[in-house]
Design brief:
Largest sheet: none
Distance between the termini: 28 Å
Mean pLDDT: 90
Number of helices: 10
Helix content: over 70%
Shape: globular
CATH class of the largest domain: Mainly Alpha
Number of domains: 2
Radius of gyration: 24 Å
Structural class: mainly alpha
CATH architecture of the largest domain: Orthogonal Bundle
Number of strands: 0
CATH superfamily of the largest domain: MetI-like
Low-confidence stretches: none
């Protein structure tokens, strides 16, 4: 008899098992919603599918009477722009400092403890400071994303860099490579796919910081809209917005993973992928 740990589901079974938790959540919501609506047809906590569909149509496909814009799409563009700028800056800073911190002893001795302390500061606790320094505009929201995820990217990439076999560094030096040649030709090519992994792992935190900043001081964005609707208990809008953020986050993660596979095929050779 084969042990459970040695059994492997086929493709169809894997797909079905993947969908199972989502279906269970949907069924549980439907049951709970029907039960509450049976008691109170005007219940706002768990609105029915018809109410949610109407809210999606209103937010995504009908122009707002006040601004003339399609609110879901304008909020999405505002949030994605802030997120893209913040993550790009964090990736650039984290990539440079992470490689130098993991490779250059003097750089590591100078910044290792400092980066560790920065990573322990809850980013949301400095949000009021950022608003005081940078104002309530776009800059403070972008800076919060940068402050929130850069220390993690630096520490992760520094650890990955330090794990490069020392023999490779010795061989490069034996061939006469300078420090910058070693960084550019030996370290950077190996660290770029690891940097993508670090960015993927930090996307969830980046969304958290962005939503928090938008909720406190903004006039557009997915986080702004969710917390605005909270005042009116408009769960028919809040739930689709939360689902849409989840879809966006999953899509960004998938795009980065596919780009990593296409750009760095050597990572997947010989491992069955």
């Amino acid at each position: 008899m084969r042990r459970l740990i040695n059994r492997r589901p086929d493709v169809a079974m894997r797909f079905g098992l993947m969908l199972l938790p989502f279906l269970l959540v949907v069924v549980a919501y439907m049951i709970a919603s029907e039960a509450r609506l049976a008691v109170n047809p005007n219940d706002k906590l768990l609105p029915g599918w018809a109410t949610i569909s109407a809210a999606i149509e209103r937010m995504a496909f009908l122009p707002d009477p006040r601004t003339g814009s399609y609110l879901l799409w304008s909020d999405t563009m505002a949030s994605l722009q802030r997120l893209a700028i913040g993550v790009a800056l964090a990736t650039l800073i984290g990539g440079i400092f992470g490689i130098l911190q993991g490779l250059v002893p003097y750089f590591r001795a100078t910044f290792n403890a400092f980066t560790g302390v920065l990573s322990m500061i809850p980013p949301l606790s400095v949000l009021p400071i950022l608003f005081i320094i940078f104002g309530l505009g776009e800059l403070a929201k972008v800076v919060l994303v940068v402050v929130g995820i850069t220390p993690f990217i630096i520490r992760d990439l520094a650890l990955r860099t330090s794990e490069i076999p020392h023999e490779e560094i010795i061989k490069a030096q034996t061939l006469g490579a300078s420090t910058w040649q070693i960084i550019l030709r030996v370290v950077v090519p190996q660290m770029l796919p690891r940097l993508i992994d670090a960015v993927r792992l930090s996307l969830g935190a980046a969304w958290l910081f962005l939503i928090a900043a938008e909720a406190i001081a903004s006039n557009a964005g997915l986080g702004y809209r969710i917390f605005l609707m909270r005042r009116y208990l408009a769960m028919d809008v809040i739930l689709p917005y939360v689902a849409w953020i989840t879809i966006l986050a999953f899509t960004l993660d998938l795009a980065l993973r596919l780009f990593q596979r296409a750009a760095f095929r050597w990572m997947y050779r010989g491992n069955g992928n």
